[in-house]
Amino acid sequence: MKQLLSLTIALFAVLQMGLAQQQIEPAKKGVHYGKKINANNAISVSTLETKLKTSPNYTGTVEGVVVDVCKKKGCFLTLKRTDGESVMVRFTDYAYFVPQDIVGKKVALEGRAKMKETSVEWQKHYAEDKGASKEEIAKISRPKTDISIVADGIVVLN
After folding, report:
1. pLDDT tens-digit profile of 26-85?
2. pLDDT the model gives residue 15
3. Is the dihedral of CA 21, 25, 27, 32 positive or negative?
4. Residue 3 in 3-state DSSP?
5. What is the pLDDT of residue 89?
6. What is the C-alpha separation between 124 and 137, in angstroms, rounded?
7. All domains of the chain, ordered by start, with CATH?
8. At 13, is the pLDDT very low, low, confident or very high (cuts 50, 70, 90)?
9. What is the DSSP letter of 85?
10. Among the four residues 1, 74, 106, 144, which has the most C-beta atoms within 10 Å?
11. pTM
12. Are the C-beta atoms of 68 and 130 separated by less than 8 Å?
């Protein structure tokens, strides 16, 4: 009986994760994810980079172009930087997710940014979630210091 109950719970959890991406509203101009935010006074990703060189943290609104999103359920995204790298954006308490079609869209997000070191283990986890090949994942061998944002809300700008 316990095995049947455990199996039923596990099956329900897997189905919910599979359906999670289907229940997310497509990324169109004006669509909000998480907290409704105001995109006025948003700074660019390059301005954020400059601010974080002189201050360890930034709280406010940032705008940028989405270059990647978690393929599993939309639980994080990355924003384009001018140097070819990207900015990791996670969502406060995993309270919301974003759709796959948000890639290439300009968005504004409100939250907290800081410079953060990401371990090899977490880099590999994120790479796997983005759909990277085993060869690409195997090349990750050193911790990386980069900009990390925890966003309370996101709005699609175009």
Report:
1. 999 999 999 999 999 999 999 999 999 899 899 999 999 999 998 888 889 999 998 888
2. 45
3. negative
4. helix
5. 96
6. 6
7. 2-156 (2.40.50)
8. very low
9. -
10. 74
11. 0.73
12. yes
